[in-house]
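Subject: Protein entry, chain in single-letter code together with its fold tokens

Category: Structural biology, sequence-to-fold work with a learned token vocabulary.

Notation: Tokens come from a learned vocabulary of local backbone shapes, not from coordinates.

Start of record: The labelled sequence and token lines come straight after this line.
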Amino acid sequence: MFSSFSSFSSPFSLPRFLRGDPGLAISIPPVATYDVETHQEKRARALKHFLKLNHVTHSIVYHNLQFHNHMPHVCTSLSTASYSSAYTSHEILGSAYLLGAKAEQLHDIYEAESRELEKWEDSPGEISKHDWRDYLGNHRYQKAYVDFFEDELVLNGYDWRKVLDEYMFQGEEPLINCLIAGLGHPLIHLGYAYELSSRELAMEALGLITTSYNFLHRYLDDTSYTKPVFNSTTSLLEILERVSNDDRIDGLFAHHGAENTESLFDNHEDVILEHWNSWCLLNPKKQFEDSQKAAAALFVATQGSASERYDFFLVHLLTSSHAIRILLPFIPTKFHVSLVRQWWLFVLTVYIAQLRPPINLETITNYELNGKDWDWLSTKAVDGKWARDAHYVKALRALRETAQTWGDKDLFYLKAAAKFGVEFDGWGGFGPLREVC
């Protein structure tokens, strides 16, 4: 059921890779970045216009503060190469742009997505430098946070990287240690900010991080949660097989859904942390490469049949892994391993909350391409039936970029993308509340 990677058993001492050693960088080349402020081609100007328009018009969280605005993500992905999700409008713009969408297509995306979004509403109060941490995790302060960070942007000469450096990476509890809150949307949004060199997206990312901030940060901020375990391994898929067979969490939930998350930590924190600490990053770059393959497998190889809908929550494991791939060359080295481990905690949480579906790699490796290639898939993402679905477009792009990063000699990523691209017929994996993020 699972692929086999080498295992490693460690002695009971805290390994170097868990001590935040600044020498343990995951050195990969940066992705191509696109400065939307300076590019003069028509579609780049169109993207800049729509990103700014969305930024000043639409809130980053809406629908009773439950959905995230994905507009920036989709427009970005279609410009390099729906089932309309309720989270981020910039996401669909960005993805579309990066997949090669024309200016007219970006316009159509913006018009379609903006119908479901909501305009900004005033927060209960303003936020200042001395109290900005007092309202962490409170979505009602989304506008106040974005306003505050934009004021900081002005004070820093519009250098958005300086603002990120101060608020993302500094202090005893840096915000970077809670990027997986909000189903990973702060992490994904931040990736697009760097990829498009967009100060609007950077300030929105800070707004998402601060308003989504929750208890998950403590597992990275407090090193006492990181403990060596006897049965450590370098293979995520090996650990996921253990998780799938762990009878301590059998029958834990009656249905899929995001509402399972908090009770999981409240009642079975020890189980989660045992599996979390089992992953040994002896060679962080190699383990990160393996984690990206595991992300693709978790999303595509867990679908039971061609008629079964793909899991909406598992796709976020793939797109958030892609966001980390974007961020690693830009963030301080000391956060490289901890960010990847943060993503692994996210994986365990979502996989268990989604009832631990079997991973069958043969559904990918045995898939017949029948002439399908990346150009065919890019066209399908831009012009196909689901071209307005933010998560569909982002998933295809994430798989393509992963193949470009590590190579795809066995066509694993192309087969995964083709399988998903052809079989997709809407999202599943929702509980009775049918949460849409």
In short: Residues 1-13, 64-71, 73-88 have pLDDT under 50 and may be disordered. Strands lie at 61-62, 67-68, 310-311, 427-428. The radius of gyration is 20 Å.
